[in-house]
């Protein structure tokens, strides 16, 4: 089998009405106009001479067409290659820019979409789901949490929390950190949610890097009293020393990793004991090939893996399910239930593909066993939202 073509498709869904930042963001009033002006992603399709096409996703935070151009530019590395030579292809793609400093950001996100598509090809060719290629069912039923309770009025937050419970979730995440100077309001929001859902529901919080170290420790101590399972991204991801301080100061788990890209970046957090739960995104961290290495490295430090799906499309969510099913140190799956705009659903999440979920009951997902990623792209959605 040989690769005959590679196609990148950027999808953009403009916001019909401007929204405020649904997560903590510096200079939120100014930056939200760019960061949260649209739902976006870049899909990758890899074609072969045997008629098998693989699909992947490049996670996109900004400028999806930039990622599309990168995929198109590295196409000569792929044309004529055996799609089963995934490690070799990954090394070639990484090597093209490694000594030029592009081992984070758009370039690794572009590699991610290509890599996921190659594994999809292998699964389809062998008539196996991707998780079987990784060693099979380690986790036949995967614990999941509803993500996320966003910055909205208290009545809406509590109604969403109850909706998640009614859907069958026993765990959910709360966004905090909208105004770091008014962190006591964050604590009060979490307290109200805890009071409403009771002690049997597992709660996490996500600050999206809102605080400084001292504030994070203050907030963390209050959260410990509310039995919060983890404190996600309390400070900037580049402040490793700060994460060391927070991990030493608090008894609760500190989670992070959605803002990093390869095992080389994650290694620093492991060796410095600056992390308790790792959260890589498979469509950002170099695809399945690299994400499996990150998870294996984390297992050597006895750090569990709780994948990030965040603002990605359902293609990434589907890919993440396959890793979650196979990895021994998997902890819990981020099952996105909340869009940035409460008045405009994200069709890239809800309509682009149907997730390969066989069942969801009592907070646990059972994955389907269809070949490859087990998904079919809704080409009507692609046609409607594709941009050049």
From TrEMBL:
Q: GO molecular function terms here?
A: galactonate dehydratase activity; magnesium ion binding
The record's EC number reads 4.2.1.6
Q: Which cofactor does it need?
A: Mg(2+)
Q: Does the keyword Protein biosynthesis apply?
A: no
Entry's Gene Ontology BP terms? amino acid catabolic process; carbohydrate catabolic process
Keywords in alphabetical order: Lyase, Magnesium, Metal-binding
Q: Which SUPFAM superfamilies match?
A: Enolase C-terminal domain-like, Enolase N-terminal domain-like
User: Which residues, if any, are the signal sequence?
Assistant: none
Q: Is Lyase among this UniProt entry's keywords? A: yes
Where's the Mandelate racemase/muconate lactonizing enzyme C-terminal domain? 154-253
Q: What are the transmembrane regions? A: none
Q: What name does the UniProt record give this protein?
A: Galactonate dehydratase
